[in-house]
UniProtKB/TrEMBL annotation:
The keyword Membrane applies. It comes from the Eukaryota. This is Glycerophosphodiester phosphodiesterase domain containing 4a. Keywords: Hydrolase, Membrane, Transmembrane, Transmembrane helix. One of its GO terms (cellular component) is membrane. GO terms for molecular function: glycerophosphodiester phosphodiesterase activity.
Length: 111
């Protein structure tokens, strides 16, 4: 059977990883691991400080009430956002450690 060329790329070529030089791939992976670890440290620091500031939740809510004119528990919203960010970054970090320990490339968000 003759090989037919399609006018558009096949789905398999769209799903295959991009062909970059090895040095560039190592730089991207090292950069993404460093970025992931720094983000994890910053999110854990923010979660720690915001959870320890529970005595100031009322002052923060009163400040936002005076600024916006309506009462809403903004301190609780910030605590939930900090916990969600910390959980998400922690899962990404665990996934990165598992992938790197198996010698796989980091495909955390891109394909």
């Amino acid at each position: 059977l003759p090989h037919l060329s399609l006018p558009f790329p096949s789905p398999l070529t769209l799903l295959s990883p991009p062909s970059l030089p090895l040095l560039s791939l190592l730089q991207v992976e090292c950069g993404s691991v460093v970025f992931l670890v720094l983000t994890f440290l910053l999110s854990s620091l923010f979660l720690y400080f915001w959870s320890q500031a529970h005595n100031d939740y009322n002052d923060f809510d009163w400040f936002k009430f005076e600024t916006l004119g309506f009462w809403f528990p903004w301190s609780l919203v910030l605590l939930v956002v900090a916990a969600a960010l910390f959980t998400y970054i922690s899962l990404l970090l665990v996934l990165a450690v598992c992938l790197l320990s198996e010698g796989q490339r980091l495909y955390l968000h891109w394909s």
